[in-house]
Specification:
With 369 residues, the protein is an alpha/beta fold. The chain has helices at residues 15-28, 63-68, 70-77, 90-102, 116-120, 123-139, 149-157, 200-211, 234-243, 258-266, 282-289, 303-310, 318-329, 333-350, 353-365, and strands spanning 2-6, 35-41, 57-61, 81-85, 106-109, 143-146, 163-166, 186-191, 221-226, 250-253, 270-273, 294-297, 311-314. 44% of the residues lie in helices and 17% in strands. Strand 4 (81-85), helix 4 and strand 5 form a beta-alpha-beta unit.
Length: 369
């Protein structure tokens, strides 16, 4: 079976979509009689991050090649199926165009990009892309892959009437870590791209409000924000932290990848994601895999999982979030340990990439020649 994958970036520049796709296809490529071919643009990190794709064959193209040579390349590769990850981009356009031209079935994974907040961000560009090509190609897809039932609803609201498969993102399971929720220097962490979508502005304001409360338990905590600046927002956030007098408490640190990322998570006492829009954030799953309790917004689309004892569902209202931060800080060590351990059990049971890769294998087998 031969699977052709189209992504907007095969490196860390692709953010969460890269993390999820590389993990999935590195597992799928290990299966017998499966060949995974990944077509992606060249970028700053594509050579450095090639190792993340395991046995997949990577084909890096220029933007010009995506328009001028993509179809001929796919014809030569002769895949059983094309899987397009993401929307709105020239890679998504080229993937669907080639598949349709060659009569190859194709699957589209929106990865949360049809969420109302995501659609409203750069609205005019996306509305234009939808009218010019995306709507036609989306409706013609053989199947759509949704990360959760909320995304199924978004797909249907956009008018798609074809088959939908619901398969989550996952995480690689490492050896369970030793409990490390330090009682003296408690650190909450954020891990991901620095973008307004992630709600970092709300978190900063809420932290300041929480520290203003008398005898706040949050006084014993710090916040570290690790990620890359997507769109030039970091300086503004740092300025606001400085204005609030919180530079000793809230720190922006360099992006974390590979083993450094897992060390960063393992050394944290909690993980927080006050996001305004998500598909299914791998970073939350990675925190649980490291036995770290999670504070996540409704928009993480993991409400039931968080509410199963693995953390706290948080508000995007800064006053309410401030109250929730203090309440979490007041939990004792045993309660936080229990949350983290329940999170670990959850990902072992439902979010292992190896299990999810087998489900994708069964999906692709439907279209195998």
């Amino acid at each position: 079976m031969k699977v052709c994958v189209s992504v907007s970036s095969a490196s860390r520049a692709g953010g969460g979509v890269f993390t999820a796709a590389a993990a999935l296809y590195s597992r799928l490529a290990e299966m017998p009689n499966v060949e995974v071919l990944v077509l992606a643009p060249r970028d700053k990190f594509h050579q450095e991050d090639a190792i993340a794709w395991g046995k997949c064959r990577l084909i890096h193209l220029s933007k010009v090649d995506f328009f001028s040579r993509y179809t001929s390349i796919v014809r030569q590769l002769n895949p059983d199926i094309v899987h397009i990850h993401g929307l709105w981009t020239f890679t998504a356009f080229s993937g669907a165009f080639a598949a349709k031209r060659l009569g190859v079935p194709y699957v589209i994974s929106p990865h949360g990009m049809l969420d109302p907040w995501a659609r409203a961000n750069s609205k005019y560009k996306k509305d234009g892309a939808w009218a010019l090509f995306q709507k036609r190609q989306f409706y013609a897809a053989t199947r759509v892959h949704a990360l959760n039932l909320k995304e199924v609803s978004s797909v249907r609201q956009c008018g798609y009437r074809g088959e939908i498969s619901v398969l989550p993102n996952g995480v690689d399971l490492l050896a369970a870590p030793e409990v490390n929720l330090n009682t003296d220097a408690k650190r909450m962490c954020f891990l991901g791209r620095i973008h307004p979508k992630k709600g970092i502005d709300i978190l900063i304001e809420a932290w300041a409000i929480a520290l203003g409360k008398t005898d706040s338990a949050l006084l014993n905590w710090s916040l570290e924000i690790a990620g890359w600046d997507d769109g030039g927002h970091v300086d503004g956030y740092k300025s606001r932290v400085d204005e609030l007098g919180l530079t000793d408490v809230i720190r922006f640190v360099a992006p974390k990848f590979d083993q450094e990322k897992f060390n960063f998570l393992s050394g944290s006492s909690a993980f927080i994601l006050p996001s305004r829009s998500e598909g299914l954030p791998v970073a939350v799953l990675e925190a649980w895999e490291r036995c770290i309790p999670v504070l996540g917004s409704v928009e993480t689309n993991l409400v039931d999982e968080i509410n199963s004892g693995c953390g706290v569902v948080i508000s995007l209202n800064q006053d309410e979030l401030a109250r929730q931060l203090v309440a979490f800080a007041e939990l004792d060590l045993e309660q936080r340990v229990e949350m983290g351990q329940k999170g670990r059990c959850l990902v072992e049971d439902r979010f292992s990439w190896r299990k999810i890769a087998k489900q994708f294998y069964e999906l692709y087998q439907t279209y195998s020649k």
